[in-house]
Write a structure and sequence with these properties.
Elements lengths: L4 E13 L9 E17 L5 E5 L4 E5 L11 H12 L7 E7 L9 H16 L6 H16 L5 H8 L2 E5 L3 E6 L7 E5 L7 H13 L3 H21 L3 H17 L5 H12 L4 E5 L6 E5 L5 H8 L5 E5 L7 E6 L1
Parallel strand pairs: 3-5
Antiparallel strand pairs: 1-2, 1-12, 2-5, 2-6, 3-4, 6-7, 8-10, 8-11, 9-10
């Protein structure tokens, strides 16, 4: 008899507007990217539990104590613990996570892996997990991966589409799809921990004192204008606001020469707007173009980045794609 297995998919994500400031109480706008992580859970007759990340080249074998020597796989163990604490039955299984999302690049690789794994494991056990609980479980993985996450990454990969998010309140508004044009995404190749730039920005905002309130107020205005422009498909306005947002991120100290080079190369190639996305100090940039011009902008970035993609936003959220038998 063939062993039972399940498969689930979760998208990547980019923050369009508001990164870092979302940690400090402002809203952020993010969209799910059509770049999936796929998790496959195959039933086993008995322990141990096997976890493998093909993209990271890592493997862990553990008993019911759920311990592993690999720090990179600890977020996956934490979501299994979170499922058990919520009375989900996690049977012995072989869990394989496959992804083309570059890690530590500001594209939500850890949240995507955690959400896909949790969905696959609950499906294998014949249990449904609603989006709200899947978000909470995925957050447990993010706390291990990033320390003090805002929650925007798991919200985006779980719910999909394009969202307005506020820490502590969750998804405030959501569009089913994304922008009317694809985004150009380029990875700088610089790897960094999310926690380090986040802590640096917190110190920066404390240092500037009363200006902190003005900065957060400016970002709130930016979010209002950006959400209106997204809903109205005003590409020129979206691009201009992206450029303003990048200027703010550069001013608070999270850009790098490599990111600046990619941003300005995209603009020189005709992008309406370009900005870093995510925590900064490395990771990726995104650019928006006029219809039909994304490939040209992407081509201009290939000499500066080994990972450039043209990707649709507004992808579906985490979902089970197969259970057999």
């Amino acid at each position: 008899m063939p062993m039972k297995y399940s498969r689930a998919s979760a998208p990547a994500k980019v923050i369009l507007f508001g990164e870092h400031f979302v940690v400090n109480g402002s809203r952020a706008i993010a969209t799910a990217l059509d770049l999936p992580t796929v998790a496959t859970a195959i039933e086993k007759a008995s322990w141990p539990l096997e976890i493998e990340s093909t993209s990271l080249g890592l493997r862990c074998v553990t008993g019911p104590e759920l311990t592993c020597s690999s720090r990179e796989l600890e977020p996956l163990l934490s979501i299994i613990r979170a499922l058990r604490s919520r009375d989900y039955d996690v049977p012995p299984a072989r869990l394989t996570v496959e992804s083309d999302i570059p890690p530590s690049a500001g594209l939500g690789s850890s949240a995507s892996a955690s959400a896909a794994a949790a969905a696959a494991l609950t499906a294998l056990a014949g249990q449904d997990i609603d989006p709200e609980e899947l978000f909470e479980v995925t957050m447990e993985g993010e706390r291990v991966a990033h320390g003090n996450p805002s929650g925007v990454d798991p919200a985006t990969v779980v719910y999909g589409g394009t969202i307005v998010f506020r820490r502590g309140q969750g998804v405030l508004e959501r569009l089913q799809g994304g922008l009317s044009v694809p985004l150009v995404v380029a990875d700088s190749g610089l790897r960094r921990s999310t926690a380090a730039p986040v802590l640096n920005v917190l110190k920066f905002l404390d240092r500037v004192g009363p200006l902190r309130v003005s900065l957060l107020g400016l970002v709130e205005q930016l979010i209002d204008l950006a959400w209106s422009a997204i809903r109205g498909n005003q590409l020129e306005d979206i691009g201009a606001l992206m450029n303003i947002n990048h200027g703010l991120l550069s001013a608070i100290g999270v850009s790098t020469p490599e990111l600046e080079e990619l941003v300005y190369a995209a603009r020189r190639a005709g992008a309406l707007g370009a900005k870093l996305t995510g925590a900064g100090w490395g990771g990726s940039i995104i650019a928006i173009t006029r219809p039909g011009e994304a490939e040209r902008v992407a081509a201009a970035l290939t000499s500066r980045s080994s990972w450039v993609r043209v990707l649709d936003g507004g992808a579906p959220g985490t979902r089970v794609i197969k259970v057999n038998p």
